Structure formats: C-alpha cells, structure tokens
Records
---
Amino acid sequence: MKALLKLSGIETWHGSICALKHVSLEVFQGQIAVLLGPNGAGKTTVLKTVMRSLYDQKRAQPEKGSIEFEGKRIDRLKTGEIVRRGIGCVPEGREIFPELTVRENILMGAYTRRGGKDIRADIETVYRYFPILRERKDRQAGYLSGGEQQLLAIARALMGRPKLLMLDEPSLGLSPMMTREIFEIIRSINLQEGMTVLVIEQNANIALQYAHYVFLLENGRVVHAGKPEVMKRDKRVREAYLGSSDNSSP
C-alpha cells in the first residue's frame, strides 16, 4: 500500500537553527495519524513545511529531503497549488476571519472551487457535522466561543474537499468536553467520508484514543512510531506523556 503523504529525510532550518532533523514519516490512506510531542519539538514545523507556509522563501535556508503526496513531489510547489492537490489545513490558533459571519468563513474554504450547486451541498454537509454552526451562521465569527471557532476552522477546511486534512493542536485552550467532541467529529469525518487525517497534538491521552498510528517527535526528530496500543505499553511514552510508569492501559 502506497503512502498518501510521505516525508523523506526532511531538514527544515529556521535561521541558524535546524528545526527538523532528517524527519521521515508516512501517512496512509484512511488513517487518523497523530504527530505527538512536547512544546518546541517541531510538530507545527512539520505541518508548515508540508504546506510551504513557514518562511519568506528569500530568507529561508534550503531544506533537504522530499515530500510526496499521492506519489508526486510537492515540496517545490506553492501553498495554493498544494491546497489544490488536496491537502487541507487547520492551523494552530484557528485563524478565522473575525469580522465575517460564520457562513462567510465557511465559504472562504471553497475559494479554489467552482460550481455553486456542489458548494451549497457541501455547506449542508458541514452543517450536518457541526449543527451549532448552522445556528450561528449569521453571527460574526469573532463572537464565537473558542470551541465554536475551532469547529468553524475545521468546517472551513472541509469545504476544500481535501483528501488529507491536517490539524494543528485542535485541543489547544479547550475544555476536556469540547476536546472530546472535536475528536469525535474527526473520527466521524474519517469514517463517513473516508478522509485521511493528520493531527498534530501534545495531549497524548486523547490522541492515543483516536489514532490509528502515532509518530513521536522530540527535538526535531521522529524518535518513536507505532500503533497506539504499542505506544501505550512503552514505558518511556507512559512516563513522559501519560503520567504513568506501569504497563496497564490508561
């Protein structure tokens, strides 16, 4: 089985600092893959390197390695071209348009598409996954709660009909209840739409419950990878990320 997304020996530099050090990973079609690690590990840099949105290219130091999507290299493409290839992104901090309404924000996700009928149908699909957004459709997005803004950011990304949806710290700043709700929606989208998902997360307890495969990133390197049940049994992972040193399930 071929990987949908494949990173091979990626090195990303931020000035004189090597933020990613020979990072290699593969995300397969239909997976919910999780990139786990502490603050400063380089998780967000992986996402931004894939999307080519990290630096002003005139000032960036060269990157080594390659990135393939559906078997074709994308590491030389511009961000807009990568989105058109089928990669959607929900950035850390949501980055919604606060002055626009909820519906207008959702429509912004379809900016690369044509065909009003299909777009209207997809808005209805989005509202089915996120009924609260239907209720709030005419409200300015800046007045939504943090959790509602996260739902809106995911909904906006779905409007691009991505083959791969990448989310950066979807649990950041949210209550445990809202975090679980968001991960349940991610699971539903994965199951019902067959969408591949890559979640960047530091909340190991929630991430390991929903992942099919996990990559552990520390200091810019992938130091461990495996299925969640294997990761849960790893003593080092349990002590550092799950707050336990025994070998029982959390």
---
Amino acid sequence: MQIHVVTEGETVDAIAQIYGIPEESLIYDNQLVYPYKLAIGQALYVPTYGLSKERTQAQVSGYAYPYISPWVLGQTLPFLTELPIFSYGFTEEGWLIPPGTEESWMIEMCRTQSVVPFLTLTPLDEQGRFNNALITSVVWDPEAGDRLILELARTMKEKGYGGVDIDFEYIRGEDRDAFTEFVRRTAAIVHELGFQVSIALAPKTSADQRGLLYEGKDYPALGAIADSVLLMTYEWGYKYGPNMAVAPIDRVEQVVRYAVAEIPAAKIRLGIPNYGYDWPLPFVPNVTVANTIGNVEAVQIAVDHYARIQYDETAQSPYFRYWQEEVEHEVWFEDVRSLAAKFRLVEDYGLQGMGYWQIMRWWRANWLALEDTFLIRKE
C-alpha cells in the first residue's frame, strides 16, 4: 500500500495531485468528512492504481455481534474468510444460552459471500455477564461438559454454522488441564461432524507467565487441538487502564515470538483492534475510564480540535492530545501505518492471517490496505 502523512498546509486536492489520483478516491477510501479538513500527522491510505505485487495468502476473521448494521456486515464480508458471531453463553449445568439477538440472518449472508460462520462460545451467564465460575463448572463436571458439547453440536448443525470459536478468558490456573481436556473432547465431536475449532488465546510471552489471564491457557496443547488460534494481541491500553497504545507492536511481537515456538505458525492468527481509546487526563487508577472510539472517529476528533497527530515509533501507534471543556485528553488508535506494521509481522512470521476485534465499525482504509497486502483465501 501507499501511505501519505499529512504535513502543515496540505489539502486533499494537493495530495491527490502528488499521486495522480482523483480527489474523490482519497476522500472515499479514507472516509473523510466534508469539508475534508485534514489533521497534521494524519496517515492517509493512497490507492495503488496500476501497481501490483505478489500477495501473501491469508485467512481473515472478524468478530461481530448480531446487532451489527446489515450494511456494515455486507461491506465487510468480502474481506473475510470467517465470521465469529458473538456470542453464545451457557449455564453451570451446560445448557447453551443463545445471543440476545437472533443471528440467523448473519449466517445466511455468510453463505452468499463464501464466508464460514463460527459460533462463538463465551462464559456468559443468563444476564449476559462474564462469569469464569461457569468454566470451572463445565470442565470439572463430566455431565455438564458433555451436555454443553452436545448442545454446541446440535446448534451448529441446526443453524448452519461451520465451526466453533472457544473464547474463554480468566481461566483459573488449577482449571488449565481440565479446560484443555474439555476442548479436546469438543474438538473430537465437532471434527467428526465436519466442523472446525478455533481458540482465542490470551497474549502470553512465556509458558510460566503468571496472572489469571494467562495461567489457564496451555499454548502447545491447545494449538495441537485447534484448527486455528487467535492471539488476543490488544488491550495493553484499555478502558480502565493507563493511557497507552492498545496494541504496541513491540509487545505484540513478544507474544508472536512465543506463540510460534509452541504452535505451528500456519495455525496462528494475529489479533488486530478495530478501535481506540480516549482518556481524560490525568489518569487516576480506579477512577479514570476511557471512552471507546473508532479509528475513523479518532481522526475526526483530531481534525475538530486542531490536534497534531504524533506517531510512537516504538509502539508503532498513532496518538494525540487535545483539550475539551478544560480537560486534557489523550487518544491512542490505529491507522494505516500501525496496520502496515502488524501486517509485516504476519508476513515475517508466516502466520495464517489475522482476526479483528471487532468489525462493528466500518473502516474502509483498513480493508483496502489488507487487500493490497494479502490474497484473502476463501475456502
């Protein structure tokens, strides 16, 4: 892809002239808002008309809730190979809990675009709240575990799913081996029925990494069972944490380096965040809460507040500060430069592809940049 970083005084028409492309293309591809003002430091995707390169094959997934805009889903599906639909929960007895919104229409749209729909399974209770005690219940109680596996198989077959994505987080260390065995039993059944299994993995950097997020995930054992795994390489900067990059490339690469030592690279997908955060400053632990924003929205905030967008070379992430109602804010987000850095990791380590959390917000430049870099491998 080509990337242009806006300097002081530049306009859309002047940049379009530099590359010999229509202004309308630059506006459309980057979702610029009338009257098309630009922020200093803003990174623009520039279409590469007439240019070609050998593209690496990749598989691409993106999580979506059933209340996604049908227009956004329709725009995004051509760039995906799989659609994990978020999310089914379950009870401690192993009964499956469907999403609050019917998802069959999404499965039907997947069929029209040769995209494999995945049933995402998460330990959500009947109120839709995350509850890791549910994990303990089903992995240690054979009757509950078997019931959940059979419920999964029945639902996948009835609904027309092509696979299951097991997204269990905060697994207790003492539940690790029992969880792995539950995944093994699940895979045995769903594989026999012709379905696929993917597993979301917390971003570990070593086998003995401490912490509730990491101790319950056995990378080599789960990698051997699954058809694919997603590295959840985001949320270093998060809603309740200090202001920093959501997916700093140096931290992300540490995870990738450990993952490929334990799991075949051809099974691994890199997690990419389709969002950013806006923190009011100063950050106060247990008090400050960041606002979740889209990457297109982040740039518009910078434009509206005449903020200069900076780029952290270590994190390979854009950020800026602005003032609103006498409160200073700091915003970290993703742009085509940070995407290029993540795409290079996928290529350099020979990974299977990437998975987005999540695709609820339409970000055209991302998908165009991905298509410039990778040959999206539909089954």
